Amino acid sequence: MPPAVWTGCAALALVGAGALLLYDDDAADGRVSAGRVCRSTLPADAELSCGTYGFGDLRQVCPASGAARGCTPTEAVTVRNSGPSAVYVTVIHGARQGERLQGPETKVGAGRTAVLRPGQGQLLFDVTLRGPGRGPKSLTVVSVR
Questions:
Q1: Over the stretch 30-57, which tens digit does the pLDDT of each residue have?
Q2: Which residues of 17-37 are buried (b: 16+ CB within 10 A; e: fewer)?
């Protein structure tokens, strides 16, 4: 392989490893629930997927781990900015699998909460997190309904 290809592969590996270090797996079942945390130390121009690194599957609220029955589409996720400075969050939603729409960016001050909704008839696919500088950014799930 040419050296440029190796350099690109090494950069991707470092980014992937850095993202994995940000994952906080408090609940091994993969469901979004109160107490789940999404943390990022990425630069201000990079956003982190909280659905992938911290919150778990945002599409449905299920009564118990592995429950096939009783799951309903997520109506709202309330998050608290548990980091030291303001963060910006964005809701990614869509009417069906494969459709991705991005909502407006919402600023959440340190210690403040925000209610994130996918919209009527929409599925909540992801919540992105970004903030100023390289310092830590953190969102904690307060409630899910």
A1: 889 999 999 999 999 999 999 999 999 9
A2: eebeebeeeebeeebbbeebb
